[in-house]
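re: ur question from earlier - yeah i can do the single chain one, its not a big deal. heres the input i used so u can compare w yours
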Amino acid sequence: MIEVPILNIQGQEVGKYQLDESLLGGTVSPALLKQAVVYYHANLRQGTVRQRSRGEIEGSTKKLFNQKKTGNARRGSIRTSVMKGGGLAFPRRPRDFRQDMPAQQRRQARNNALLSKVLSSGLKLLDGFSVTKPQTKTVVSMLKALNADRSVLIATDKLDNNLYLSARNIARTAIKPAAEINAYDLLTKRTVVMTKAALENLIKPAKA
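and the output i got, formated as tokens:
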């Protein structure tokens, strides 16, 4: 069992949460986390680049000058890849960079990423937090009190529209419901601010 401090929005400890690390994989697997990051990076790539080959360049196909007795390098048409403005010898074409990763493996990577945050004290667990109206300064003051105002992911139990409107304009801050976060979200933020209800919802065993 790992004891995780439960904080209030003023950053004061109000209790302890007993977290069973076996629910998060037991140990952190760097290889699995790297695979997850590569998977999410690859799936963000558009792959829409397209360059022209020499066959797609406009211009005469006539040989520029004689092959021999000119003292110059041998030249073909103006479309050749060695001429300025010519087509490329091996042009890049549109391609699909997407990779596949089973859902069970993605969940395991997410749990591993969360466990790494717990072990490195990067998880700030709140007893509860809500915003009655959209107000950015409320969220900013909370993050400063938690010492989590540099790069932070705020994970809530359910989507809170007022909290989303309050936090969306804060630099290097992301906000998501716990059910939607993945390993990439957790690993790309220095600190994770999560409510107790969100954590319990996240580590709940998946339905078969």
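Residues 97 and 142 are 40 Å apart (CA to CA). not sure if urs matches, ping me
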